[in-house]
Design a protein that fits this description.
By secondary structure, the protein is an alpha/beta fold. The protein contains 18 helices and 27 strands. Helix 8 runs antiparallel to helix 12 and helix 13 packs across helix 17. Bound molecules: beta-D-galactopyranose. Keywords: Glycosidase, Hydrolase.
Length: 686
Amino acid sequence: MRTRPAPGALVFGADYNPEQWPAETVEEDVALMREAGVNRVSLGIFAWSALEPYPGVYDDAWFGRVLDRLADADIGVNLATPTASPPPWLVRAHPEMQLEDAHGRRVPAGGRLSWCPSSDVFSAQAERIVTHVAETFGDHPAVRLWHVSNELGNENAQCFCQACARRFRSWLARRYGDVGTLNEAWGTAFWGHGLSSFDDVQSPRASRNPPDPALALDYRRFCSDALLGHYRHEVEILRRVTPAVPVTTNFMVAQAQDAVDYATWRDHVDLVANDHYTVAADSRRHVELALSADRTRGLARGEPWLLMEHSTSAVNWQARNRTKEPGEMLRDSLTHVARGADGAMFFQWRASLAGSEQFHSAMLPHAGTGTRVWREVVELGDVLRRLAPVQGTRVERAQVVLLWDVPSQWALEAARPPSVDVRYADVPAAAYTALFDRQVAVDVVPAADAAERAALDDRRVIVVPTTYLAHSGLAGRLEDAARRGAHVVVTALSGVVDDTARVIPGGYPGAFRGLLGAWSEEFLPLQEHETVDLDDGSVVRVWTEHVHVADGTEVVAAYASGPLSGLPAITRRALDEGTVTYVSCVLEQAALARLLQDVVARAGVLPVAAADAGIDLVRRSGQGRSFLFCLSHLEHAGKVDVHGRDLVSGRLLSGVTEIQAGGVLVVDEVPSSHQQLDGQLDGEDA
Ligand code: GAL
């Protein structure tokens, strides 16, 4: 069952934690929610100790009253299972359910998500409270969606306790069958790590040396599966008790996050939901935001998804938190909606007075309603109401696709690559930024999709950034796509190892040598701040390789300085209608942008619309209508060519239109010819 957030309206609201406030506050909350146009809250996320203050003693009445008030006010509820934070009495009774860190230290009480997903005690307790919540409140008329736990993996991505080690051994036995196969796959002959039985396997706890890469990679997979197992256990209960209520859990898709591999989770949610927080120190944080939203849509296979959390202004957990500028919250929200979110929700409704997030922004600030944040919240509610027709439409399939691969991220981290400056996420993010700046629409999909599904069909440009771990079938699919006319760009350190982190021998990148018509015999990482030049004027940092080309492969750029002078740095192989470009070095951003622009132009891909640089453009369409989102990141007025009615201002627009600095337009585009619009405009304006 795939369920959209709310037919006919975009979702707007926040995490709501009434347990932090006197009971009477609910009246004011509900009145203000209505004033702001809130139509959805996530309730009960951290309410376990309030719902069960003593072992087996439930206090449900207050929760039922809150649900009733919300239902009366027509505010729907994402009902949470409160398992993210078990009550202190439970942790005291069963300290063994707490996770252990890589040094074997048990995490003390306090915090949240400090439980181990392999703990039988925790699992039984979670089953009990989830069943209680589902049976007591699951059929309440306010409930629209289950919100399972909270950001599973955020604080408990990896546990190193003995229970996990035992389950890991069983997981390995299922995956590899016998210990001989495991020894072979992991290459345990190195340093004499040969295993006599699965019982010899230990989790990769902190040691004098880093763990074997294959062990570390499989442990990441196992931990992701263990958390998924916990999620699925909760879901089984919810589906049994309330089969009609769709289920989700809030993902954390962000450049700096790799807690779990959502590519293996997404088929277990009825609706993909994501939490995203901008990075204060990043002056171009809107680009990372857009990338997160595009990745989330890729995980949702292009279907609408829900922004479950973001912030109205500053968070409280970065080194130097940043208060959002006027208009930034609206732009941030619409950046998600433009990219397929059918709503925008926040952490949280009312700013907490106590607790470790007391200085985190909220929809209702400490200072109350006479504030800029509140006014902007009310304005956002109004804008989202006007954007109701966008709900359920889909972002148009992009001609450019960028692969994102969490297993490659894990494998590279596990590998001790030859340079500390090689960080997986930087590479797809750099490519994305170059395309974003050119206003080119990009779909970002898990690399596993590209190996198995039709993700590459009809794409004109395919970017394969540092896809270190070669998914089986990927090279063949890329080759087929190129023969059909796609222009494929592969960057350094792609296809170097197989699924078990073992180097594919015979010259790098082993999996893609044939595809590229090029191979390297040696890596030559650069020192910090060291750069070398290419003969096309590009500057290279971090990474170079000693590349050889096969007959027929063109050298696009060669080294003009350093030990590789005269040798190929960027190569291109023509394949029937398409090409495959290998960027064997890390290009500085300007050079990467030039290269990708050249490929995009060669492929005939155009920007989403004609507009000044610095205006983000995305189109959603469906049911015969299309909506062009234009979000200005300029500090001065800009121009965009649009035809239709701006749903934000209500104005009819035809042709080159001014968009104010930092402003937004969502144009309900005229389906037929612009001629006709001109007629309409004349008529309406007269
Ligand atoms: C999220 C979390 C929320 C809140 C928020 C603060 O990661 O789900 O509960 O902690 O961060 O930014």
